[in-house]
Amino acid sequence: MPPLSMGALVVFALVAAALTLFVTEWLPPDMTAIAVLVALVVLEPYTGVPARTSIEGFASPAVVTIVAMYILSAGVESAGVVDWLAGRLAALTGGDEQRLLAAIVGTTGVSAGFVNNTPVVAVFIPLVTGLSERYGISPSNLLLPLSFAAMLGGTLTLVGTSTNLLASDLSAQLLGRPFSMFSLTPVGVVILAVGVAYLLTVGRALVPERVHPAADFTEEFDMDRHLSQLQVRDSSPLVGLTVQEALEGGVPDDVVEAVADVVDAGESLPTEATVEQVLAASDPLDIDVLQIDRNGESFFATATDRPLEPGDVLTVRGNRQAVNQFAQTLDLRDLARESVTADLLAESGHPAVLAEAVIHRESRLRGRRLADVQLRSRFDVTVLAVRRGDEIIHENLAAVELSAGDLLLLQTPLDEVGHLQDEGYLVLTEGPPELFDALDGGPPSLDAAAAVPLATLLAVIALAALDLLPIYIAALGGVVATVATGTLSASKAYDAVSWNIVFLLAGLLPLGQAMQATGGAAFVGGLLVDAAGVLPPLALLALVYLLTAVLASVITPAATVVLMIPIAVATAAEIGVAGFPFLVVVTFAVATAFLTPIGYQTNLMVYGPGGYRFTDFLRVGGPLQLLLCVVTTLSVSVVWPL
SS3 helix, strand, coil % of the chain, rounded to 5? Predict the structure, then answer.
């Protein structure tokens, strides 16, 4: 085993620091990657990474191709191809759960080999939840297989996932052997077939039913003690005020103090008091007014300009203690026996609906408090509850700092919710059909315009597959064609790129170079070689797969592929076998990080809508990971002999 140099120790320290930051997310992953890049250059005497070399990752073929493929995928998505496909599946399956599951995993798996899997899953989530509600199927039974199928499909081609492109770049650097468009396909097809078969049989039995079929939103989010109805009495100070005036009127400090004294004394407020005074005087009350019912007619509370009248019934969100105090101080009658259901809010006739939305990893809401975002004042959107794994948060919502994977129950107007999704705040996962018709401009259809982005994508794949052009040049040409044909504007093309992923990949590439240059990869490879004393090369290949899969499920797949590929190649060299099979095994392992919801973006996207627990991914993904360890190792050794 080679000795451990000071440079290798420094690089290992940086790796340890990076892994800690990736797991704790004290910094966003992309910023962690840039910090690693800077540290490698500052410590150049030890790491051997000069400044110019450190930024070469931004011009690497892998990163350039990833940027281009984001834009090409957006072009296909904007033409409605994925929506159209999802709509056809809904019509063909007819509500049979087994056929629906087969259609979802089959279509998603194949699509994800050529189109970025994140928009594919984003389109399928509301389709799946809508069909689940219509046919009495638990969405939990379908959403986790949807995510896993998208990951399995990423193994089909070079462009199936960003880590394939990154692995190809590293393969070119370390072995002088980049991947072609379909290099991975022989094994990828086997992995997809085995994975789909597992999801339709064993996986189907293991997926837990966390969300009850056809449960309405109020049941799903356990809202029975957090939604109430209050009736306005003749003597209430709210009479004659609009809800907006009551909630937003200016309140002098002396009035707030006077109101506080009244509240402390347990008395009713004078008639000139407003709701805002109650909120200011009671530290404050965690109350939202959602709906006003008057003589069989309903009004959206934050949008109507109708003054409140005696007899009006207010539907409010808040716990019982807050509601009781709210009713007492504003002289409202508590209709405690009236149950507030999703149907009561959904069939109201006003333009607001109930919907679910998930916070994705790139969301503008991630890491921010609801109070700072001000969704209610800016978009008339009210958050009623937040589901985080198997925990549901009902109280003090303004102070909740949102995390990736959080599922939000919203009351939202139809004409505003599209802005939240289009501007990168969240992804709508479930709601009434009219909500998604409003987002999509009606039921999905496919016209002649869709042929242009599809033809562009197919041309890029063909040029690369026939070795007529390098993939990154063909993809850049496809970007030009996408903009030139009007499929996407230039600004939308730039917006389609997940720049945080670009910075993550480019920032981590120098770390792999430093591992190689300082002997760190050879040292860790030597440790694995020691295992070769009791394990044959094929078993060692399987061990590399398992180590990579576990690591990729804890930190980002991109970080894992950069760390593990130099180690895998060094290990192969130490035991005197071909390095390419070891490199390819790492590539497949990072693309199938099933074990946790945090390892892969699509797992996070289905985590909340499916009502899953953290351990559900291990429960379903663990056996699949072990199965694929055997299948992948054997398949790789056959296609690329050791």
Answer: 60, 10, 30
The secondary structure element, H or E, covering residue 231 is strand 227-232
What's the pTM value of the predicted model, to 2 decimals?
A: 0.67
For residue 370, what pLDDT is reported?
Answer: 87
Residue 625 CB neighbour total at 10 angstroms: 21
How far is the C-alpha of 42 from the C-alpha of 46, rounded, in Å?
9
Which residue, 242, 307, 608, 198, is CA-closest to 428? 608
Tokens matching residue 627: 């199965």
Nearest to 36 by CA among 12, 5, 8: 12
CATH architecture entry for 224-337: 2-Layer Sandwich (3.30)
Per the DSSP assignment, residues forming a β-bridge with 369 are 401
Tokens of 368: 């921010």
Q: E strands of 348-404, at which residues?
A: 352-358, 382-388, 391-393
Classify the C-alpha dihedral 23-52-562-43 as positive or negative. Answer: negative
For 196-214, what is each residue's pLDDT tens digit? 999 999 999 999 888 777 5
Where, residue-wise, is CATH 3.30.70.1450 in the chain?
Answer: 224-337, 354-436
CATH of domain 354-436: 3.30.70.1450
Which residue in the block uniquely carries the two structure tokens 């990423």?
A: 154
Can you give the pLDDT at residue 505?
Answer: 76
Provide the pLDDT for residue 86.
64
What is the tens place of the pLDDT at every residue in 103-118?
A: 889 988 998 888 777 7
